[in-house]
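Late entry, evening session. Most of the bench is empty. Finally got around to the prediction I had been postponing all week. Sequence below, unchanged from the version circulated by S.P.
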Amino acid sequence: MGNTKTKTQEERKMKKLNVYDVYLDDGRDVFKCTIPAENKAAAKRYVTGNGEVVAIKDCALQDIDTNCLADTLRRNGWGQTEIDVIIRTLHACGLERH
């Protein structure tokens, strides 16, 4: 057998995300971006090039009501396949409300 490794189901899971409010100063204004990321360092990397990071704080929003989201998307003409992908992604990232 070769030296190939197969990923376990656990290794294939998406990483758990937290939601952060990142405050940026672009030289004229300070503004807030809300960023889902693995950690504060990843949130900071995401906004690189958009100004100086002034602060990074945990956002009050840490989960999303996926039943409400799915209903809203359905009522606005989204297809079931699109809804399934969005909801499954939120679940895999740990952002689904329980």
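Two things to note before I forget:
The chain has a mean pLDDT of 90.
The chain is about 35% helix and 25% strand.
Will write this up properly tomorrow.
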